[in-house]
Design goal:
By secondary structure, the chain is of the alpha+beta class. The chain contains 6 helices and 4 strands, in the order E-H-E-H-H-E-E-H-H-H. The protein has a 4-stranded mixed β-sheet. Helix 4 packs antiparallel against helix 5.
């Protein structure tokens, strides 16, 4: 899934999550971008320098010509938006400001934890919780 022009990076999302897929479809329809959008399940994670855990934890942004995530969650979303037209670039620039990003992370974590309850979400969207530490 790519936008217009040479990709400036790769945006990695969760292809098993209906809510995430709905958001990516919105981006594809409404946000002109210069990025490759790919579910982590279909991505060559080693070539991108990502792990499966990173793919299941948050969306990731890998700039073109590099390996390893340059940002996750709202940082990745901001990077994707900055590849777009002036209006979306401005939104990405604002989201990329440290104070805004700091405020966006708790919101992102809440959405990620509750995405199976959000519009378009299904039980398949639920991220498994880490096992509780055993006492004793």
């Amino acid at each position: 899934m790519t936008g217009t022009g040479e990709p400036e990076g790769t945006f990695v999302c969760d292809g098993d999550c209906a809510f995430c897929t709905m958001c990516v479809r919105f981006i594809e329809r409404r946000v002109p971008h210069k990025a490759t959008l790919v579910p982590w399940q279909w991505a060559d994670l080693p070539a991108l320098g990502l792990t499966r855990e990173q793919g299941t934890t948050a969306v990731q942004w890998v700039p073109a010509g590099t390996t390893g995530a340059a940002g996750a969650g709202p940082v990745a979303i901001a990077a994707l938006l900055r590849t777009s037209n002036p209006l979306w670039r401005a939104a990405g620039a604002v989201l990329g400001l440290r104070p805004v990003t700091a405020l966006a992370w708790p919101v992102y974590r809440w959405v990620a934890a509750n995405r199976h309850r959000l519009p378009g979400g299904t039980a398949a969207c639920a991220v498994p919780r880490p096992p509780a530490a055993s006492a004793g």
